[in-house]
Design a protein that fits this description.
Strand 14, helix 9 and strand 15 form a beta-alpha-beta unit. With 369 residues, the chain is an alpha/beta fold. It contains 12 helices and 18 strands. About 2% of the residues have low confidence. Strands 3, 5, 6, 9, 10, 17 and 18 form a 7-stranded mixed sheet that branches.
């Protein structure tokens, strides 16, 4: 079996996103071949392309994907041809101490893989026969993709795949930060910094958890309007005030119980800590550059019993949480349709990344025929 697929590729850091026809590896042991239906255009893909997330080039982008299993390799028992699936950019080996203690988002396997697919044989080859890497062990911004079963989650076949793809990263990251990592309590006060796809999902997580006040902070009035649509009770344009922290403290009447940094900037992490009330928790969700730092006052952490913690992938247990979020969507609790502000063909992938960089979308989604 020989499969050719058009895929979004980045060949050099800060270089153009190109669309190329590539040869797709047949599924080997514990691997499945997926005919992709949709792939979200996530800021982490842009971070790989611009070097914020450092990895060897060239690379096939995409980690927020949904599709249908087209073929299975040897040893595969939990998936069959025709299954609807989501990709999971965090593989789950089920054996390391993190998986064994219910924290598969911290699994040792993807850490060792260093953002490349496990195994020696490249998942994609170009016309010259040269292998390409895949982002986050996925590389699902392609018409077909071969993934290890540790990075695949089966979902309800009746779920629309163009909406389901968002669950596999952005929605899981944001909603999970609120529900899993912070464990937001009913009637609490929450502040969310950054209203892109992840931030809007964090707002939804706070709403679902029963927060009584949700303050959205961004520099875009359009995104602040979206935040209101997703559950924010108050909004603040950071450009409209001289001191964001003081403005939030005044608006909340003394500080937040929970604050979520969904931008990926050390300075905003510091703001999230500084808007907390006594006993409050700040959660760093955004992916910052490795060299970026945040300045906090340890005395205030101690004296006010504030907590600063990180949330990776929304502290997800993908095989449990993905179906749970889909049930929330189907019951009307979770908004997915409204997150998608534009769809693209694979040939429009360069435009999709330009729109992402310019902040034009809550979420763009590439649809495959």
């Amino acid at each position: 079996m020989s499969i050719t697929a058009r895929a979004a590729v980045c060949r050099v850091v800060n270089g153009p996103i190109t669309v190329e026809s590539l040869q797709v590896k047949e599924p080997g042991h514990n691997e499945v071949l997926i005919k992709m239906a949709a792939c979200g255009v996530c800021h982490s893909d842009l971070s790989a392309a611009n070097g914020t997330i450092q990895m060897p080039m060239p690379v096939v982008l995409g980690h927020e994907g949904a599709g249908v299993v087209s073929a299975v390799g040897t040893g595969v028992t939990e998936f069959a041809v025709g299954d609807a699936v989501l990709s999971s950019f965090v593989g789950m080996c089920g054996r390391c101490r993190y998986c064994a203690t219910g924290r598969p988002q911290l699994c040792d396997q993807p850490a060792r893989a260093a953002l490349a697919a496990p195994g020696a044989e490249p998942r994609f080859r170009d016309a010259s026969g040269a292998g390409l890497g895949v982002f986050a062990a996925c590389g699902v911004m392609a018409e077909y993709a071969t993934l290890h079963t540790d990075s695949v989650v089966k979902i309800d076949k009746n779920m629309p795949l163009d909406k389901a793809c968002l669950v596999s990263c952005g929605v899981m990251t944001g909603v999970g930060a609120a529900i899993n990592t912070a464990q937001v309590q009913p009637a609490s006060i929450c502040v969310v910094f950054g209203c892109g796809g992840v931030g809007l999902s964090a707002i939804q997580g706070c709403r679902i958890a029963g927060a009584s006040m949700i303050v959205a902070v961004d520099t875009s009035d359009l995104k602040l309007q979206m935040a209101t649509d997703f559950g924010a009770t108050h909004t603040l344009n950071a450009k409209s005030v001289e001191d964001v922290v003081k403005a939030v403290m005044k608006l909340t009447g003394g500080g937040a119980d929970y604050a979520f940094e969904c931008v990926g900037a050390g300075a905003v992490v510091a703001q999230a800590v500084n808007v907390l009330a006594k006993g409050g928790t700040a959660v760093a969700v955004g992916v910052a550059a490795f060299a970026d730092t945040a300045s906090v006052r340890p005395l205030l952490l101690t004296a006010m019993e504030r907590t600063l913690k990180g949330s990776y992938f929304g502290s997800a247990r993908p095989r449990e949480d993905f179906p749970r979020l889909i049930k929330m969507y189907r019951s009307g609790q979770l908004k997915l349709d409204e997150l998608i502000t534009r769809t693209y063909t694979i040939d429009e992938a360069p435009q999709a990344f330009d729109d992402l960089a310019q902040g034009r979308n809550a979420r763009g989604v590439i649809l495959f025929d």
